[in-house]
Amino acid sequence: MRRKRIYTKRLAHKIIQEVLENDIHSIASKGILTTEEIERIFKDASEQLSDSKPLNLKRLGIDEIALVKGKGHYCAVLIDLDTSNLIAILGDVYDGLRLRTQKVIGETLTQWGIEVLEQIEEVSIDLWQGYKNLIIELMPNAQVVADRFHVMTQINKELDTQRKREKRNVEELIKKTKLAEKKAEYEQILLGLKSSKYPLLKNEDNLSKEQLNKLIQVKNISPVLKVMHEIKEKFRKIFDNTNDWYTGVFKLGMWLSKAKKYFPKSNNTIIRWFDEVIAYFDNGTNSGVVEGINNKLKLIKRSGYGFRNFENFRVRCLLNWHSFY
């Protein structure tokens, strides 16, 4: 038993596990411990969480999650990519919103100590300059790796913007034309463009038969979307099928020359982050594991019916990956 506590460490561990699967009030209703005592257990765990630092950390993933979707309410998530463990959830409060900031992330990294920071070899990040600056400043031996999935997201956004543009243009033509024959032709084109988002953006290898037929229909209707989809798929295959740095650089260079016309924004972004993008080909490091962790964090939010207190949310999340009793 801890000093001044009426419960054993073994019971505290069991209570934490049960609360993580349910909620405090349902566990308190069993009559073993009161709500206040259970909250005390979580506070004790919180104090130990604050004192902990990662051990043997070689590959770090930094990403963000939305605490409140669509409200600009984000925080940073730090993950050990080799063990798939959540290390920390960080954010700062500004005007009632919890934001990812260089200051709060930098403070946490600094608390880990130079011994931990110097052993980190790779850090996978999204395309935010703030993360890159912190890594360069605090992790002298780390290679920054632009997460391929975030780059792919930007390419998909540009493809989807073109899809929406073509759809709006056809809708305008339908409104303006007075010829029945032309209107019927435009309506047929619009029908082909409708419900085409996921067939265009989803990996072609994972399309259902219905989605594949829709993709063929869209390509027949729009030559531009056809070319853009093929360029998008080429980018994905470069990263799926390339195992060495030299070949990856060559293929990506060829891709950029073809993509410049159709994906100007993505093209410029990749050029700006070229060293970090091609770093993927060294070891295939990416933040793919983050998606699984993010999904679990969303489940925790739902099971807790939302968290008005960020600290409670942070502790509850971390205790799913760390045990302190």
TrEMBL record:
Pfam families: DDE_Tnp_ISL3 (PF01610). Residues 60-316 form the Transposase IS204/IS1001/IS1096/IS1165 DDE domain. Residues 156-183 form a coiled coil. Keywords: Coiled coil. This is Transposase. It comes from Nostoc flagelliforme CCNUN1. The lineage of its organism: Bacteria, Bacillati, Cyanobacteriota, Cyanophyceae, Nostocales.
